[in-house]
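Sample intake sheet
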Amino acid sequence: MHDETALPVLTPAHPEAESFTDAIAAVARLEALYTQATTFLAQQFNEVIRSGKPAARIRAFYPEIRLTTQTFAKTDSRLSFGHVTGPGVYSTTVTRPDLFRHYLVQQIALLIQNHGVPISIGPSATPIPVHFALAGNPGVSVPQEGVLEFSLRDVFDVPDLATTNDDIVNGTRRFHPDGSMPLAPFTAQRVDYSLARLAHYTATDPSHFQNHVLFTNYQFYVDEFESYARQVLADPASGYTAFVATGNQIITAPDGVLTPVTKMPQMPTYHLKRADGQGITLVNIGVGPSNAKTATDHIAVLRPHAWLMVGHCAGLRNSQSLGDFVLAHAYLREDHVLDDDLPVWVPIPALAEIQIALEDAVEEVTQLEGYELKRIMRTGTVATIDNRNWELRDHSGPVQRLSQSRAIALDMESATIAANGFRFRVPYGTLLCVSDKPLHGELKLPGMASEFYKTQVARHLQIGIRAMERLRDTPLERIHSRKLRSFEETAFL
């Protein structure tokens, strides 16, 4: 282990913590502290690159929010967030307060209102890794280890995976090392890690992500999404202000030009933005539960208000047709990627607000309702597996399990997205489109798609968009319900 006592430590001025009863002022203080810390690290880093290894270790700290309450008095129990569960000291480190300004103001204001005590803002004891401090700074680039004549670890703090984890959301951490209890679901280091990963996987800046996220596994939906974006950008009354494509290309008019990129990211992502962040983001996660987990692991730190899967699936009933819709109300989890974080015995409930929004959206787009809607949509269990070619093995076992579970559709992403929504307290839902029926001889082969199927796929994205627009108008206290909260929850959403 590196002996840090060998060098003195150079830090910026370490101001005393201040108390605030105004959320906007508190967030302004968070921003000032964060800017001071990251500016210090950038300046020192540039100096080190010019002059070589310094005679001191260089360190700056994340700001933190701290709340102390001494009463068991009950708060407004209708809310599932915005309050702590009992007396004690609660804290969270904060990164990028500029990016999370609206979220932080909202959550801090609820704490002050519900507990009637000020919150404290000051530097934490958690160092900012230099890689995260300089991320997005165009004037600075961190070289790979081995390029410099000395190790960065000898001078600066670097990302530490031992402290970058999901202990809080997984319910395995009750106390921070200083004895305080978690105030938010993610620490600053965990957020910074995901912000960096999002920029890498999606080729768009995290600042473009909107509060409502659609996931798909088919490129056709991307084309439809861009077409829809151009339509609404032509209508000032729509509330949409911009469309962001791969490489942070931004258009604000329906005839804006987007240049095709030569190298697509792993998860191409597109953002139909509103000024208040209440627009829609579409992520093409591709195929497989690993991608689904990766995307949701990182998007979760942005605290979206809902995410939905709108992709293709295999229909398991002979009564289904290509192009039919499947609204998931339960999940059979054989994806395995979340078993260590969320055991398979944990039920993943359907969320009424999401289900209603999706069903209403189907009715609106298809102009079918009631009993007639059953012609093209089934509600039931969706099974998610991790083997795309399961049909090539002895499938008597899987088919028996699918039948026993009453599954009506099979895919490789939906249960993963729903389970991670449950784990991260992000409202979730699934509406799939049947693209093949492997148990009935209709495999996904060229030329099998009917005109009805093609029309339904075009409608599918419209339904997802309409559902999100309905959820946008749903009060936060309704969509972030107590169904997603455990016994001892963090105050922050």
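Comment: The chain has two domains: 4-198, 203-475. The chain has eleven helices and 18 strands.
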